[in-house]
Amino acid sequence: MEQLNNIGASLDFYIFVSIALFSIGAIGVLTRKNMIVLLMCIELMLNAVNLLLVTFSTFFGNGEAQIFVFFIIVVAAAEATIGLSILIMAYRNSKSIDIEMFNKLNG
Amino acid sequence: MGKDMLLLTLIALPLIGAAINGILGKRLPKILVGSLATIMVFISFLLGVTLFSGINGTTIVHLFQVAKFDDFTLDANFQLDSLSIWMTLIITGIGSLIHLFSMGYMSHDEGYHKFFTYLNLFIFSMLLLVLGSNYFVLFFGWEGVGICSYLLIGFHYNDAEKGIANSLAARKAFIMNRIGDAGLLFALFMMLNKFHTLEFVEIGKMITASPELYTGIAGCITLCLFLAATGKSAQIPLFTWLPDAMAGPTPVSALIHAATMVTAGIYLTVRSNFLFELAPTTKDIILVIGIATTVVAAFIAMRQNDIKKVLAYSTVSQLGLMFVALGMGAYTVALFHVTTHAFFKALLFLGSGSVIHAMSDEQDIRKMGGLSKLTPITHITFLIGTLAITGFPFLSGFYSKDEILAHAWMSSPIVYGILMVAVTMTAIYMFRLYFLVFHGSFRGGEKLKSHVHESGLSMTIPLMVLAVLSVFGGILNLPGIFFHNAGHWMSTFLESTTYGLNQIKPEHMDGSQSIILMCIASAVALTVLAWAYITYVKNQAIAKEDADMNVWEKLSSNKLYIDEIYQTVFVQPILWLSTTLAKQFETRVLNNGIFRLTSAIEASGNYTRKWQSGFLASYLFWMVMGIIGFISYYIIKSTFWN
Amino acid sequence: MSLQMISVILGSLTIASALMVILSKHPIRSVIYLVITFFFISAMYILMNAQFLAIVNMIVYAGAIMVLFLFVLMLLNLNKEMEPETTRMSLFSAIIAGGTLFLVMITALRDTFQYGKGYSAVKVPEAGLVENLGNLLFSKYLVPFEISSILFIAAMVGAVLLAKREKQVID
Questions:
Q1: Residue B379, Cα to own-chain centre: how many angstroms?
Q2: Angle in degrees, CA C41, C47, C49, rounded to 5
Q3: Angle at Cα B166 formed by Cα B146 and Cα B181, nearest 5°?
């Protein structure tokens, strides 16, 4: 029964995983030029944050952080919907999903 | 209606008239515009009479607070006392007569409504000036009359021949007045600093309570006030604008530049009498400047050939006479002369306006002559005005001048002697003017002669009213030798409630001396009259052309070259400096600097705008760098500074 | 096998699959790896006894959102030729930037690591159970919960409006 009380690795490991995921997402956003992959990397970063929140929530026994994770998922869903529809529209107009095609705001 | 409401209505009426004429005047018929303006001022006059008859003590009406500071407030307050109501009566009374005159005089002018708007605005400003209970409201009125004067001098700015000259004259008057206004402002600042209030009565009370505290500052303040007075009242050294101001329409010359506005400086001095009483040096300066002005202006007037220029220099001379009275501390006497001068000088100016109107805008007296039969009413009234100003016995000018001369005699025989010279010169140029214009034969040619006609009723009625006032105006302040009980009625009235004046008890000389002085003055006037009659009527002398003049006449005719001196001493160096700065400093320093600056900004903009590549990745890269920077900052801070 | 081992393996797999998301050339493969990453994350939630979130994560993220991505990919009919090339320069700078970010964040949380040492064996937290979360959600966070439905309506309307096949001109 002692084993069941354990939640796996220690706190620092979860934090490490979360930061690693976030950094990978950031690198993805910086390198990839495909807009869909860009959106996916953003989702990855959001999940890294979620993981961190859940970790701390668990370690401090406070449920409110998990409510926030819940709301983050809600907003992420809405964001993905809108982002994808904008993407579709952009693709229709330019026949491309290369993010560097959309640099009209340059100086 | 209470006193407060009456007073406020009195002030507001000309403003309302100006607003209506200014906004709607263009579409209204001329007769309506003119009569509206006239009636507004006339009602103000009637209200003034009502207030005058019921005056007792000093009343202060609070309208609103303009600004509040830590240690003082500026209020729009009005003060009703004998001095302000007396000035109000002069302004609105003569003002309404001149409005009436203007209805006829300006009838052919395009800017009819504009003219009456300005006139009403002027009356409003002047009322502010004399009715304000503090120097702040006075300053508002002071500037208001200045701007109206400017607008009216340059009224015919788009005239084909004289437009430029008119504009220049207006500009000159404006700039000269600015110099004086700077003095007034400095005086205001000093008073705020010292007294923390601008109310006349409060300052007066403070000074009366402890005069020894304020003797030093009073000298500075009064000097600045006097500088302001020299600007507005055309004294040396700021008097050259007034003769040029005759470029304005003649009713304007009569109203603003003879009867009312130019006496603002005298009003200011009388109002600040408590300050001047503390500064004997300033009073001496006033005396000297007054004497110099009256002599110089009278001298110049003797050989002027423009009918209005003669009257203008005469005005300057008479104003100098008033300042002599002020310098001797005879404030009520100065005001008495202001009053009678307003009567006869307005009359003379309106008379000259009537002459000019009859002569189809010809102003040169060398082209006139023999107008007495062609324009009889103008002739009679002008004669009365001339006699009044020269001090002919028992006319208004006789009494007021005599008072000043009597005070001069009491203070010093030298002053009296110089003033007698000035008075003699006054008589000479006035009779010369009168005889050249109205007697002898007509010199303007037959064509012009056929057009000469007597003016209409709206112009002759004011002349007649003013003539009556010029004859009987002296009754206001008869010297004691005529009526022992009712003597000096006006002085007594003014001293009754005006703050400060009741503190000063002017001495009156005894009867026999007074009679001797009067006899001398009358003798001078009569002698000059006889001499002028012989010279100009019997011998048919006419004004000489420039070539035939001797040195003195040339000096007089060329206004002592004062304009030229000012031009050389002040105007030319400033012009040279300005052009030099414009050519050298502006092109080399300012322009170059600005071009450098703009090109630098453009270059930096061209460089930095490349940072906005439009690529999402680069923005994100810098954002990540920013995050890294922030976190690093906090890490370092928490590691090393905690 | 101890839970310790399981969590370490799970974490490693998560990072590996996340790396595959950004490394694979084909977008379809990226999506698949992302779904796998989300499943691993859900598994970690279960390890931490956050059951409700584990289920939500699986249904909403791995299910709905990723299906949406896949659907869009298929709708656009992308193939490998259309995949934009990444320049060496940007790759280099991105790795520098991401690596620095990683190191800096680790440094920032170093105190937490100290604090978290030996904090692994606590009593089973019950905060993440459905019952507890439900109580919180429908009492304290009721208003935000209701407002989130408005957000969804707005997102739905917006998506329909944006993706509608109409004459839309964007230069």
A1: 27
A2: 110
A3: 20
Model confidence, pTM = 0.69
DSSP letter at B75 equals E
Half-sphere exposure at residue C64, Cβ-oriented, CA atoms within 13 angstroms: 14
> Which ipTM score applies to this complex?
0.88
What residue type is assigned to position B155 of the chain? F
Q: Delineate the domains of chain C, giving CATH numbers in brackets.
A: 1-83 (1.20.120.1200)
CATH at A10: 1.10.287.3510
Confirm whether A106 is domain-assigned: no
Quick: pLDDT tens for B162-207: 888 899 999 999 998 999 999 999 999 999 988 888 898 888 888 8
Minimum CA–CA partner of C88 in chain A? A31
User: Does residue B640 belong to the interface with chain A, where contact is any CB pair within 8 Å?
Assistant: no
The reply to whether A107 falls in a domain is no
Is the pLDDT at B5 greater than 50? The verdict is yes
What tens digit of pLDDT does each residue of B516-562 get?
888 888 888 888 888 888 888 887 777 666 666 777 777 777 787 88
Using a CB-CB cut-off of 8 Å, the residues of chain B touching A99 are: 615-617
C66-76 and A64-94 helices, crossing angle to 10°: 0
Domain spans in chain B, listed from the N-terminal domain onward: 280-557, 565-640
Residue B464 CB-density burial (10 A; 0-12 exposed, 13-18 middle, 19+ buried): middle
- Which of B612, B620, B621 lies at the smallest CB-CB distance from A106? B612
Tell whether A87 lies on the interface with B, counting CB pairs under 8 A: no
B584-616 pLDDT, tens digit each: 888 888 888 999 999 999 999 999 888 888 888
Would you tell me the crossing angle of helices B135-153 and B163-195 to the nearest 10 degrees? Answer: 170
**Residue C89, CA distances (Å) to A51, B295, B618, C94, C95 in order:** 32, 95, 12, 8, 10
| pLDDT tens-digit readout, B122-156 | 999 999 999 999 999 999 999 999 999 999 999 98
d(CA B160, CA B139) in angstroms, rounded, equals: 36
Look at residue A20 and tell me if it is in a domain: yes
Q: B628 and C104 in contact by Cβ < 8 A?
A: yes
What is the C-alpha end-to-end distance of chain C, expressed in Å? 60
CB pairs under 8 A between A and C: 272
Averaged pLDDT of chain B: 87
Domain total for chain A? Answer: 1
- The whole domain housing A15 covers 2-101
Classify residue B407 as exposed, middle or buried by CB count within 10 Å of its CB (0-12, 13-18, 19+).
buried
- Residue A45 contacts B where some CB pair is shorter than 8 Å: no
